[in-house]
Every structure is written in C-alpha cells, then in structure tokens.
Design a protein that fits this description.
The complex is a heterodimer of chains A (about 140) and B (about 500). Chain A is mostly helical and about 140 residues long. Chain A has one domain. Chain A is built from five helices and two strands. Chain A is elongated. Classes of the chains: A mainly alpha (about 140), B mainly alpha (about 500).
Chain lengths: ~140, ~500
C-alpha cells in the first residue's frame, strides 16, 4: 500500500465518523431531510475511504459480510417492513404500521423506519460492491 | 388475499434476487432457491389470473396513498395474462438453465440477475403509473445487460454495449415524454392521465409526447426502424438468456404500446392508428426479410422476433375489439413459441455442435425427437393450422379485413409465407440434409438432458393446447380486448367513483 502515513493513521477516524453521521442521517430522515439513501451513501463513503487507506481486504474485513449479502439483507429488510401491512388483509402492500411505546418522551416508531434501514443497507452493499470491483481491477 | 396476490409477482422475484445474491459463493444452493422462486411465481400469477377472471380488475394502492399520488398497481386481463406468461417462461428457463454449463453461468451471477429481470418484467406488467413503468424498464435494462455479458467474451461485450447504448437512448426519450406529459396533464398515474388527456388544451404537444413514447417503447419492442440493437446482441447471449430475452423483453415494449395507446391516447386514434399501422407493416416485412438472409439459427430467430412484433401492433393500429383480441392472442402464442425455438436451438447446438446451418445436418436421423420438438413451434410460428400461430394470424388478418385494412392483411399473409420459408430452411439444413461432418458426441449427463428437454416438451404442450383447444384462449383475448377498450371502467377502478384532485387535497 502506498497510501501516505497520515491517511493510514487517520483511517479508523475516516471510517467511524462517517458511520456515526450516516446513522444520524438515517434516523433524522424520519421527520426531516435525510434518510436511508443519503445515510447509506455517507456510510459507503467512509468504507471507501477505509479501502483506499488500508486496502480493500481490510475494508471487507471491517464489513464482516460480503457486499452482496449487505444488499440482500437490506432488500429483505425493506421488503419485510411492507409485509406487516397485511395485518389487515385488505390494505395495500407497504401500508405503514405505527407503534407508540408508553414511555415519558414521544417516540413514534413505524415500519417506515424499517424500510429506510433496508434502503440504507442496500445502498451500502451496492456502492461498496461497485467501488471495490473498480479498485480491484486497478491494483490487480 | 387479492392484495397479497397483486404484490407477490413483484415480491417473489425480489426475495429470490436478494437470497441468491446472499448465496453468491454457493451456486448449487442458488439454483435450488431460484427454482423454488420460479415455481412460486408461476403459481401466484395463476392465482392472480383466477382472481381477475372471477372478480375483475385487481387494484392496489401501495402504502394506502390514494390513487393519483401514490404507487398504484393495476392488473386487468391483459396484465394478468402477461404475468402468467412471465411466470411460465421464468419456470421453463429456470429449469432449462440447469442444463449444460449451469455451473459457469451460476458462478457468473446468473441467478440474481435472472430474477432481477423477472422482477422488472413483472413490475412493468403490473404498474398503473407511467413513471413507475420507466423505473421498471430501468430495472430490466440493468439486469438484462448483466445477463447479456455473462460469459465476458469480446463478442458479448460488443453486443452488450450496442444493446445498452440504444436502449439508453430509448429510455431517455421515455423520460422526456414522462416530463412533458406531467407538464401537460399534471399527473403520472395512467388512469388519471387518461381522464385528463382528452381535455388538454394543447393537443399538439400531447401528440408530440405520445410520439416520443412511441419511439421509446418502439425501441424496446424492436419495431422498424429501431430494431438494430436486437440482431446485434441476441445471438451473442447464452441460450437460456437468449430464450428469456426473446420471450419477454420486446413484449414489454409491445405491452407498453398497447396499454398507453389504448388508454391515454385513444382519443387521438385518427393520428396514431395509420402511423402504427405503417410501422407494423414495415416491421413485419423487414424482420422476415432479415431472417431470410441469414444462415445462423440464432440470427434467423432474432429477426423473426422483429417480424412478429408487427402482428402484435395490428391491434393498436386498427383499435377494433377483434384486432386488439388478435394482438393479445398473438402475444400469448408468440412468447411461448419463440422462447421454445430458442430453447430448441440450444439443444441443437448441444447435439449438433453448432448454430451455423452450414455445419449442421442429419439431426432428423440422429435425434428424431428433437426434430419433432422443433417442428411444433416452428410450424406454429409460420401459422400452420391447427397450431397456436394459426389462430393468432387468423384473428389478426380477419380483423384487418373487417376494418378494410386490406394492405395490412395482405402483408400479414405474405409475411406468414416467408416465415414458413425460413423455418423450412432451418429444417432442411439442420435436420434433413446429410451431416457435413460427424457431430461431436454430445457430452451431457442424464440430469442435464432432462433439464434441457423438460421445458421444451412443456412449452410444446402449451402450443398444442392453444392450437387444439383455442376456444377459451380466444374468449379470454376478446374479454381482454373489451376491458382494454373500456377506458371508463379502468379509470373508475383505479381512481374510484370520485377521484381526489390536487386542488381539493391541498386547501
């Protein structure tokens, strides 16, 4: 790896800061601009930085699962969130279900969030798969 | 239950794509998942067809957002029939793809891409929204590009790039048309658009947008003069891929033309009828002449796809109930027959060692069963009674005569003869003449042989069923045509009796 010393040392920071921001964006998307797609893009930017500084192998290790699996899990999550709609069989697919847990702050939880998490994972899987394929061709 | 059946032709391939992508390094497991998913897809599409036949059009608003604003799925007779055919083809090709060279294909990612293609096709057939149709076209385009270059050969990349370039131009036209139509009508929901379109002040601009749509759908359907991408790319694909492309991709374009021009632009038929009629005739003639000039089975079959697309457009050209019924019947018959011919071509390649007619020969002596299985779809394609193609052609030509479009009917008849010529050419060269050199021994296992021939026999069975028992299929086509021409019924089913309008929704 011919990445500079500064880049190599700051690599973990460049991974985890975008990760934290991406999760913030994901949850913020509930009521404000943001959401799974933007969050996923930011998270994959972090992973791509990590791959540039520490090598693709290290980035794949940090991801634990291959990008295709991230994609698959994301798709299944998004798809599963819509299935709850059929608690009422006449409702259209993807109809939101809401849950208001009885705690001191108002915290409405809905299947829309689950859908967004699915989008988030799918975007991470897709972007990293594409970028890693291109980077791999360059070095290999 | 209706809502579940409505969404499942999209959900099942989506799950299959996700799961097979997760099983990336285990091709055997992928194949099993793929087969189960294809079977389930076929079963649910049959269920959906039953639901449409018994209870009429199935409509669903995804996420319960009301009609002109949300994502609408609509399945009427035509959509249901197309979905069933998609399921049948998915199943046949999923089995066929377990034949020779399955391992290599699956390692290159055949399964996720194949199911993604089915996802795009099923989505395009069930959506009731013009922009969503565009999205499903894109899903199909991406998946089909991946499938086309599966073997990563130079030839395939060359064909693939032409395919993607021309299709991208087509979808760009589509996007432009969507933008223009939204500007003119203020809606993207097809039913709402159909309600608003006749009252639009600037009918000239509306017609221009319709022509843009015709160009982009026509490029998808490979009509004259936008068909060049098809013979440039199809013959490079591996056989299961070529079969599913031949069966479904161009037909999505035909479906889109039928849907949009019978629903949204029906009031402007005086302009588009003759235009589509001329395109249909040119497509029939050019395709069949192209086929006559070629001596490679795959290229001959590719040109025949183009030629047959012309017949399917006759319905839109004439817009009489009988003509549209003919188009529907023709699409159903053609998908089965054409995919089957590609499957047979793959088997010919396996047993005779080549696709080039010059190097084939003597297959009737060595493989008489294959010869029989070739003759059924080939003669059906040419329209020999009592096979399925005869009824398709009969209805189309009769509709032409009834509407006094004698030129159109005459061209359709003549093209049928030329089709017979190229089918007989394949028969003479590959099956009848003496083998120029002894064919290499077909090295395949029993399981591979079964996987290759089971779908061919199944599809031959379907062709024969339509041929000998045409009554229910003809009745269904007429019902489909009636529901296509009943625009008010479609609009009422999607929007409800009193449609919500933006001005009323936002105070």
């Amino acid at each position: 790896m011919d990445a500079s010393l500064i880049l190599r040392v700051s690599a973990p920071l460049l991974l985890w800061v975008p990760m934290a921001v991406s999760v913030y964006l994901l949850i913020r998307g509930h009521n404000a601009p943001g959401g799974g797609f933007v969050g996923g893009l930011v998270a994959s930017a972090g992973l791509v930085f990590y791959a540039i500084s520490r090598g693709q192998e290290a980035a794949l290790r940090a991801m634990r699962l291959p990008p295709a699996s991230w994609c698959g899990i994301g798709l299944l999550t998004a798809l599963g969130s819509g299935l709850l709609a059929w608690l009422d069989p006449s409702a259209g697919y993807l109809t939101h279900r809401w849950w208001f847990p009885d705690i001191s702050v108002t915290l409405p939880l809905g299947t829309a969030l689950v859908f967004d998490i699915g989008v988030y994972l799918t975007v991470i899987g897709t972007i990293t798969a594409m970028v890693f394929a291109l980077v791999g061709e360059e070095t290999g | 239950m209706r809502q579940f059946l409505l969404a499942s032709p999209i959900l099942i391939p989506l799950v299959a794509t996700a799961v097979t992508a997760m099983l990336w390094s285990r091709p055997a497991a992928q194949r099993r998942v793929g087969l189960v998913a294809a079977t389930l897809l076929f079963a649910t599409t049959l269920g959906l067809l039953g639901e449409v036949l018994s209870g009429g059009m199935v409509v669903g608003q995804m996420g319960n957002w009301p009609a002109p604003f949300g994502v609408t799925l609509v399945v009427d007779h035509l959509s249901a029939a197309m979905l069933v055919i998609t399921g049948l083809m998915g199943l046949a090709v999923a089995v066929y793809a377990m034949g020779p060279r399955a391992e290599e294909r699956d390692r290159a990612g055949f399964q996720p891409l194949f199911h993604a293609l089915l996802l795009g096709v099923a989505g395009a057939f069930s959506t009731g929204d013009l922009f969503n149709l565009y999205v499903w076209f894109e899903v199909m385009l991406i998946a089909s590009f991946g499938l086309l270059v599966l073997d990563r050969t130079r030839e395939q990349l060359d064909g693939g790039i032409r395919y993607v370039m021309l299709n991208l131009v087509g979808t760009t036209f589509f996007l432009l048309a969507v933008g223009l139509l939204y500007g003119l009508t203020g809606t993207l929901n097809l039913a709402d658009m159909a309600r608003v379109a006749p009252g639009v002040e600037n009918q000239g601009a509306l017609a221009a947008a319709a022509v843009l749509l015709l160009v982009s759908f026509g490029a998808k359907a490979a009509v004259f003069p936008l068909f060049n991408w098809l013979p440039a790319s199809y013959h490079t694909a591996s056989m299961p891929v070529a079969a599913i492309f031949a069966a479904l991709l161009t037909k999505v374009g035909v479906y889109a033309i039928i849907r949009v021009f019978t629903l949204v632009f029906a009031h402007d038929h005086a302009l588009f009828g003759p235009l589509v009629g001329a395109i249909a005739m040119a497509t029939m003639v050019v395709g069949v002449l192209g086929a006559a000039a070629h001596y490679d089975i795959r290229r001959i079959l590719s040109f025949h796809i183009i030629s047959q697309i012309g017949y399917m457009l006759v319905g839109v050209a004439l817009m009489t109930p009988l003509a549209i019924a003919g188009s529907v019947l023709y699409v159903i018959h053609h998908i089965v027959v054409k995919a089957n011919l590609f499957l047979v071509a793959g088997a010919v390649r396996q047993m005779g060692g080549s696709f080039a007619l010059a190097r084939l020969g003597g297959l009737w002596a060595t493989a008489p069963l294959l010869g029989l299985l070739f003759l059924i779809p080939a003669l059906s394609l040419a329209g020999i009674p009592p096979l399925s193609g005869f009824w398709g052609k009969l209805v189309v030509i009769r509709a032409g005569l009834e509407a006094e479009a004698f030129l159109l009917a005459g061209v359709a008849l003549a093209v049928g003869l030329l089709t017979l010529y190229s089918m007989i050419k394949i028969w003479n060269e590959a099956f009848w003449k003496a083998a120029p050199e002894p064919a290499p021994a077909a090295g395949w296992t029993r399981a591979q042989r079964l996987a290759t021939f089971a779908p061919i026999v199944l599809l031959c069975g379907v062709t024969l069923t339509i041929g000998f028992w045409a009554e229910p299929f003809a009745a269904f086509s007429i019902a489909a045509a009636e529901s296509l021409l009943d625009r008010e019924g479609y609009i009422a089913a999607v929007l409800g009796a009193q449609p919500t309008r933006l001005a009323e929704a936002v105070p």
